[in-house]
Amino acid sequence: MKNSSTYKATDIIAGFECRPGIYTLNGASAMLKAVNFTIHSANATGCSVVLFKRGETEPFAIIPIPDSYRIGDTWSIMIYGLDIYEIEYCYRFSGEYAPEKGHLFDNKTNILDPYARAVTGQSVWGVKSNKSGGYHGRITTDKFDWGTFVKRNIPFSDLVIYELHVRGFTNSITSGVKHPGTFDGVIEKIPYLKKLGINAIELMPVFEFDELYEERRHNGDLLMNYWGYNTTCFFAPNTSYASGIEYNHEGDELKNLIRTCNENGIQVFLDVVFNHTSEGNEDGPVFSFKGLDNSVYYMLTPDGKYVNFSGCGNTMNCNHPVVQQFIIDCLRYWVIEYRVDGFRFDLASILGRSEDGTPMENPPLLKTIAYDPILRGVKLIAEAWDAGGLYQVGSFPSWNRWAEWNGRFRDDLRCFLKGDNGMAWAAVQRITGSADLYPPERWHNASVNFLTCHDGFTMYDLYSYNVKHNEANGWNNTDGDNSVTSWNCGTEGETDDPEINGLRMRMIKNAFATLFFSRGAVMFYAGDEFCNTQFGNNNAYCQDNEVSWLDWTRLKKYREIHDFVRDMIAFRKNHEVIRHATAPSGFGFPDTSIHNSLAWNDKFNDHDHVVGVMFAGRDKKGREDAVFIGINSYWEECPIELPALPEGYDWNIDFYTYAPYKKGTDYNALIYRSGNTYHVKPRSVIVASAISKQGLYR
């Protein structure tokens, strides 16, 4: 608590001792003898603090903030005699109600503090709040002990990112944790993640959201906003993800997760959604920004309607100076108070649109984030597109700080791996770091390579379904991605055909081998390593059930895939040349080379389905290294010639996806070789490393 003993009350308002507050202290802050409330609105004419007893819907006090307490657009008041453990709060604003002008002021509407550190009534997942009067904030204290916390500094190119939904990761009884569906449940799985080789987790939204907003039933099943891309409050953690009640110290369990992850060499990134809020369009509720300063915080048409570049009803006016400051304050808060290591920005292209919606060449918000001194050490990852048609993969404004979800990597390699014509050249570009998209100065920190994420098919479903099966979502299968980059390998959905199932396992291993062999950071979706399925649903945003929850029994059933992923991650970590350029090769090889079925031939035509990529150099310990991936996406056996190695060295086949995977298998004995030419079976991948004839590379 901050010391307020030097501040003396100057007024009695509504029976409370008060004085002007600290104008630079946003939100509600506990002082030694008082609570400081600070809020901003450019267009309101009056503001009151509304106080409630814990759990009550009717206020016990409404304290108007005098005009003399207002400086510029900021109201600030210090109120004495409040027990922060027994109260909740919100605001009410007076002003013009003129929707056609963008003003929605109503002094009877309760407005949630956008800077609230905790939101009440949201603590139990799936239980509707009994608060008919809107959301309330709670005043928090920070007593969390970070101990000797030291942030991990993992280079971008070394990242192996595991995207997960906090609830879905452990909510199934099959997870075996004591605290399913919670931050503590994730903590219980850290040993598993560590053994797998993960060094970063990306948490789908953990800011407070209302999972029951727009709840509905379809065929008797409750559908809700399970993913959480509908933020209620940007400064408050989702308390329904905590395993216990955290009155007035909300966030401690999330902080413990972040601390424990870092102690185990795992960074924590947050998926943040600044492009829209859960207030929706004209038909949506008024509980926060709409009632605070609607025309400032949202993009509006000249007649006061909501612009919808987000596809979710409204669009935040991100490059308005006030909104810019709010977003910067929010990011700084999560870095300072929660020690997060990075952010993934949902539909980040919206953050680069001007106040009239047009794309900007040098968006001030993105530039400010890039250069902010508090944010300087965190990873910034953009989903470089939006629902308004703006697609910026390869061109997102970066200032050499912003990385991108490389959607071209996903799309091009999915097409190549399933055998589409004309994709060979695009495939090698993606594997070698997408130099056609990113300039040399960005190669080390530009591309987050992925083939799967929360949005779309799981890896198992990618090779089990030709089309989406989203009927359970209640939109007649009209929602979700309609692209044709998946392949069912011959039968739609589950089958007992051993040949098809064998092909599917091979395709999954091909995909993972290609992903982990590629330059750039690596990301995949939780459960993909043991073939988790969503039964063909590629937009499971509303499915709080077995569709979205990880089925941990599949870890035993698909142990081969899990072990393959684990060992490919270890292989990537053991070979620095895969991740980035190193010291020049003593073999005389270039850092990166591209091959077709013949070594050193980098010419491709539309009917080529064989590619080879070699990385070579010396690692930091001076060890000579060369690694090669050969991909045959054709439906027949094809020869792949590897470059000749200097005398005393030979190629060792470390992985061959045609054969069942088991650590320690001698794959050299399972593939026909003639000189440096290997005859690779249909739809298979080989990964090889140069070894001294006296022993393997170590």
Automatic annotation (TrEMBL):
SUPFAM superfamilies: (Trans)glycosidases, E set domains, Glycosyl hydrolase domain. One of its GO terms (molecular function) is hydrolase activity, hydrolyzing O-glycosyl compounds. It holds the Pfam family Alpha-amylase. The keyword Transport does not apply. Transmembrane segments: none annotated. GO terms for biological process: cellulose catabolic process. Gene3D superfamilies: Glycosidases, Golgi alpha-mannosidase II, Immunoglobulins. It comes from the Bacteria. Belongs to the glycosyl hydrolase 13 family. PANTHER family: GLYCOGEN DEBRANCHING ENZYME (PTHR43002). This is Putative glycogen debranching enzyme GlgX. It comes from Ruminococcus albus 8.
